[in-house]
Amino acid sequence: xxxxxxxxxxxxxxxxxxxxxxxxxxxxxxWLDGEKLARMIRGAFVARRxxxxxxxxxxxxxxxxxxxxxxxxxxxxxxxxxxxxxxxVAAAARGRGLARRLYEDVFAAAVDAGQNLIVCExxxxxxxxxxxxxxxxxxxxxxxxxxxxxxxxxxxxxxxASDSWGIxxxxxx
Length: 173
Hints:
Blueprint: E1 3-5, H1 12-24, H2 26-29, H3 34-43, E2 46-50, E3 55-61, H4 69-75, E4 82-89, H5 98-112, E5 117-125, H6 129-137, E6 141-142, E7 148-150, E8 153-161
Parallel strand pairs: 4-5
Antiparallel strand pairs: 1-2, 2-3, 3-4, 5-8, 6-8, 7-8
């Protein structure tokens, strides 16, 4: 399966599937309505999907017009970065390496833009050991001991630098 761009030209039925996949993972990601998803896609540094919508990722750089609380935490601490806001993989598509492929695409886009830091957060409450292991495999490390409160979950900010990525060349679209 190929990685495809999500943008203003993405068909409405695909956007509906993206929204449904996001909201199926609202505990981990946060609930979105169609309008907020469209705004996020317009402002994203990277917005990609695999297949019809087997998986997707949205990431923002430090200059993005994005107001997420966790994004703001990184913005006050780092001059340049790419923030992975959300990634989701449909249950039927798990175990096929789609999340890894999407992260590698973000790493490639970051390198193309001269970025060398990727940041995100992992849930500490409720815990998500699979996410912890996945992020550790890319060299992500906890940044200090700060925990962010975001609604009904507590998250820990993590960061990785480009020397940990081992990324392939960027696919062309």
